[in-house]
Amino acid sequence: MASNEEEEILRQERQALRLLCSNLIQPRTRVALCQLLEPSLFQDALHRVAFEEIQTAGGVSAARLRESLPARITNRGFPDFDLHTFLGHDTATESEVEDLFLSVLWLVRLRHDDEEGELRN
């Protein structure tokens, strides 16, 4: 895989995680989005673990999720995890939400394409 392609995948993964941690979506929306995704879509190990922990947290508030996430990820083997460094901002702005949703849709489409490929084989 080309370096630019790898960078784009990692960017899309991180953007999707930013949305899932955002206070601009309802907890039930986060749960629904997590059901559309699966951990194997995340190529980066830290991203995969972060997604699994977000998925496991369920319908908690974004504030509570962001509060508990660092300890949960540290306990999963990433001792230097810093949520602020990882996400860039504490929360997404309203103007960023559309782009963040597009990142989730990009990952969902990736899952759908993979499933179609398996059905053809």
Descriptive notes:
The protein is mostly helical and about 120 residues long. It has a single domain, classed as DNAb Helicase, Chain A, CATH 1.10.860. The protein has 6 helices and no strands. The two termini are about 20 Å apart. The model has no long low-confidence stretch (mean pLDDT about 85).
Task: Sum this structure up briefly.
The chain is mostly helical. Helices cover 72% and strands 0% of the residues.
**Helix/strand order:** HHHHHH
Fraction in beta strands: under 5%
Gyration radius (Cα, Å) is 14 Å
Quick one: biggest sheet? none
Helix run count: 6
Feature tags:
121 residues, mainly alpha, DNAb Helicase, Chain A, 6 helices, 72% helix, globular
Topology overview:
Layout: H1 3-20, H2 27-36, H3 45-57, H4 62-75, H5 83-87, H6 94-120
Helix pairs in contact: 1-3, 1-6, 3-4
